[in-house]
Fold these 2 entries.
Entry 1:
Amino acid sequence: MIKTISTTPYTDQKMGTAGLRRKSKVVMQPNYVENFMQSIFNVIGNLNGKTFVVGGDGRFYNDIAIQKIIKMSAANGVSHLIIGQNGFMSTPAGSNIILKNKADGGFILSASHNPGGPNADFGIKYSNHTGGQIPSSVSDAIYQQTTKISEYKICDIPDINLSQIGHQEICGMSIDIIDPVEDYVQMMEEIFDFASIKKLFQSGFTMRFDAMNAVTGPYAQRIFEEILGAPKGSVVNYKPLPDFGGLHPDPNMVYAKELVDFMFSDNAADFGAANDGDGDRNMILGKKFFVTPSDSLAILTDNYKYIPAYKDGIYGVAKSAATSTAVEKVAQAHNIGYYEVPTGWKYFVNLMDSKRITFCGEESFGTGSAHIREKDGIWAVLFWLNIIAATNKSVEDITTEFWQKYGRNYYVRFDFEGVDTTVADKLMENIENKLPSLKGYSQEGFTVSEAFPFVYNDPVDFSSTKNGLVVKFTDGSRIVYRLSGTGSSGATIRVYLERYSLSDIKQDPLKMLTEIFKIAMSISEIPERTGKHQADVVT
Ligand code: G16
């Protein structure tokens, strides 16, 4: 039943920040998935005795790609697959299943927060035995394979029925189809104080969780409504749909508009939250109040003692370089380790495995801990609920008290999308060339204290990664420039702005960052080089 099929390479199978992301139509080309998967299998080598976890966020083409992966796994000698029922599994749940079963890795079929559908995006995230996505050295080797692939192996059998939980054997490989929600719920129950969150809901506390028609709907309904007792209907857009019902499943102020409008209305719930396509990102809202992801990481870290799993102490904390420095002050206050890594959750994995950090987070709506090796949307929501239950304070009060204690890092990210890649590359090169001469440069009353490309030297594997360009000012303000690594076409220039104030904590972030934005534009020459005077997305 095993067939070897000739193929020719595609030239565009290089993974980005988190796996391979392309337009669905690109992925649907003949042998596209097959070439990519065979390249992975070739790099791993002997697959005999190996176990992999497979699932996805249910987006368009999930059902087709998963069948290809199953049949190719069997043909390549994989011994065992653990698959989410109907092909569904969130990214954090997948990481947990890999760790719990000591699997050799896993494949989550998702383009994360990117929209889904025939005219939208598809993707494949590949994790190894750590439960986290593979390091760049491995993805580079896979890319090399994709450029010279000439054949792939596949089992010539009918599609496998993924709807029944249980065990099957195909082509000499064993398959276990599991409930993708069950183990995840158990893990959350072990981390958080479910009894006190239950009491919170019993007292009349209200919440709205927007699953954005993506993978977390069933997880959220089970946890928030069925177990914790949030009123039925608290979880909205709960049914995972192949095109996410036309929603762009990115939980931010722009794309989670329905939730934002509700939470900023007079009928708002006490607490609001959203997750992205594959359930690793989160957005936190209070009544007419938004918590930036950078602040969220700092606040969770500062309040770790309320959480049963962390109350006895935590290791350090890490953030991506582009994330605001709010959590640095918390790390100093608690006397714990503090690390800055490049953008990409995979860079946290070594720090977690070596017990250097417990918490980590990114400005791109990602927060998580060492319970798994991916960011975790529902975990972040439960963490907030647990703090609220323990302190009896609102999201706004918790955040305001945090700013009163540590000062406020005003922070906004500006995305310039759909830029020609050559223009974007030149623009970044031009900024980088300018960096050495920027020290002492003054504009709008701000003076540059240092300017440098961000370079991360991993303390565990000693690899070195360059990602982003940093301009720091004498008052602690910062500009970071980066090109996104998660888009599926063209380039997105990300400009991250930050300004710190110890006592002036109630201002409008955009107003506070007006001057820094002007400086960022004149250093980068974005308007002149791209023709864009406004960002396409401001979060
Ligand atoms: C991925 C990575 C994150 C990263 C984000 C944005 O998240 O796992 O570490 O912050 O992309 O990356 P970029 O700025 O390069 O677009 P996800 O949720 O998309 O898998």
Entry 2:
Amino acid sequence: MNRLIAVLSKSRKLKSFIRMASSFKEGLCRVELHCHLDGCCRPETIWNIAKRRGMMDALPGNTLEEFLTELRVSGSGTLAKFLHSFEIYMPVLKGDRVGIKEIATELCQDKMNDGAVYFEATYCPHFLSDDNLTTEEVVQLVNEGFKEGEKKFGVKARSILCMIRDKPEWCREMVELCDKYRSEGVVGIGIAGDESVALEIDFYQGVKEAIERNICRTIHAGESGPASNVQEAIEVFKAQRVGHGYHCVEDDNVYELVKKTGVHLEVCPTSSNVLGNVSPDWTKHPAIRFAKDNVNFSLNTDDTLHFNNSLQTEEDIAMKYFGMSKEDIITARVYAAEATFLPEGEKRELVEHVKKFSVSV
Ligand code: NI
């Protein structure tokens, strides 16, 4: 009997070792915390879905290339063009079961090709739902898509459901969906949207509820808005992470708070520059100060569909303009891994994985 127990216990240990060893894909070493599911889909996928659904009239341009010029924002791009581009193609994705699952699975492949071993994608299910598809079904489809992507491409994918600043009426539902699907791949809640819109009470109640239910939080703040928004994210919303956060450097007290609390800033270099949320002069980017002061931050893409960027290009920018060395880039990857919303055990494993496979990069 004792021998049997010993064998079983050994095999359990072996199984758990195998699980540990294969949990993250070998060779991949980047981690992304800030990308939007509906801002990172492939243009050709939107194009094909529109064809399939007979919605080509909804898209501008006669060819995929012409359509792309409407979506991509570059040096001369503006926030208005960026926001407008979502209005152009979101109706094509809205309510399309096959398409929603497809963009989730494809994102895993795209992140794998970009060297990511793990990522968290943000989205608001309301933007993808319609009269025939509930927000809950959207969440289920994205979860399924990520699971399939994880199986096919070996990239671990999790999601963050996002409250939108001018949609207080959706807050409560976001908290409920986060709670209900926490074991199915939803790891946190966020707030995104136009920072000039004052937050209604619903957001404070929603986040309070999220805190009580132990749901992790990341808040877009200090992107276009003032340092005080970053302060609010840290002190009121008890956010573990802040999306962007650039303008925290404009208030010494808030910058001290960022350093003191060690809150994680999800920096998106190209996005910040192209959308004009920071000075167009790269040598004045706040991340230079973040790097110098060893602030806890990572490098992210935000919306690859619009910026035509990647984790690779963001790291290149950081080395070229932020004075970051290869070691600093690895540190930023490790900070990202440590700031994920994964359970503690998985997180530790990810951190070790990133350290191990980043050595040669
Ligand atoms: Ni964002």
